[in-house]
Write a structure and sequence with these properties.
alpha/beta; 5-stranded parallel sheet; 33% helix; binds 1,3,4-trihydroxy-5-OXO-cyclohexanecarboxylic acid
C-alpha cells in the first residue's frame, strides 16, 4: 500500500521535546525501523510546522494514496482548515497521537479534525503510527 505519514508542529523535536510525554526516540530512526518491518508497503513521510504546508500535503496525496496517517500536533485542537482539507479528499485518514490526549489538559480533549477522519488512535507512543498503519493493511 502507499501510505503518507504527516507530522505537524513540534514533532520534528521528538526525542528532544518533553521526553516524559513523547519518549526519547527520534522519529526518523523509528521510521526506518517501521519501513524495514513493512517493506512491502510504501511509507512516505512529511513534517511541517506550517499549517498551510500540511494542507498542501493532504491535497497532494489525498487522491492517489491508499491512506494518510496524520498527527497534526496542536493544530488538531484548532484547525478547521485541516479538517476541511481532510473532508475534501478521497483517501481515508487516521488521526494519531503519541500521548493519550484525553489524560491531559482539557484543551487537548477536543479534536477539530477527528470527525473528518476514519478513526483516531492515541496514547500508544510511536506505536500509535504502527496501529494506524495496521488499520489500513488489515482493512484490506
Ligand atoms: C500530540 C498531542 C497534541 O496535543 C500536542 O499538541 C502535540 C502532540 C501527540 O502526539 O500526543 O504536539 O499530537
Amino acid at each position: 500500500m502507499k501510505i503518507q505519514l504527516i507530522n505537524g508542529p513540534n514533532l520534528n523535536l521528538l526525542g528532544i521535546r518533553e521526553k516524559s510525554i513523547y519518549g526519547d526516540s527520534d522519529f526518523n530512526t523509528w521510521l526506518e525501523q517501521l519501513r524495514q518491518q513493512y517493506a512491502n508497503h510504501q511509507l512516505d513521510y512529511f513534517q511541517s510546522n506550517i499549517e498551510g504546508e500540511l494542507i498542501n500535503k493532504v491535497h497532494e496525496t489525498g487522491f492517489s494514496y491508499d491512506g494518510i496517517i496524520i498527527n497534526a500536533g496542536a493544530y488538531t485542537h484548532t484547525s478547521i482548515a485541516i479538517a476541511d482539507a481532510i473532508a475534501a479528499i478521497n483517501t481515508p485518514v487516521v488521526e494519531v497521537h503519541i500521548s493519550n490526549v484525553h489524560k491531559r489538559e482539557a484543551f487537548r480533549h477536543k479534536s477539530m479534525i477527528a470527525s473528518s477522519c476514519a478513526g483516531v488512535i492515541a496514547g500508544f507512543g510511536l506505536n500509535s503510527y504502527r496501529l494506524a498503519l495496521d488499520s489500513f493493511i488489515y482493512a484490506q
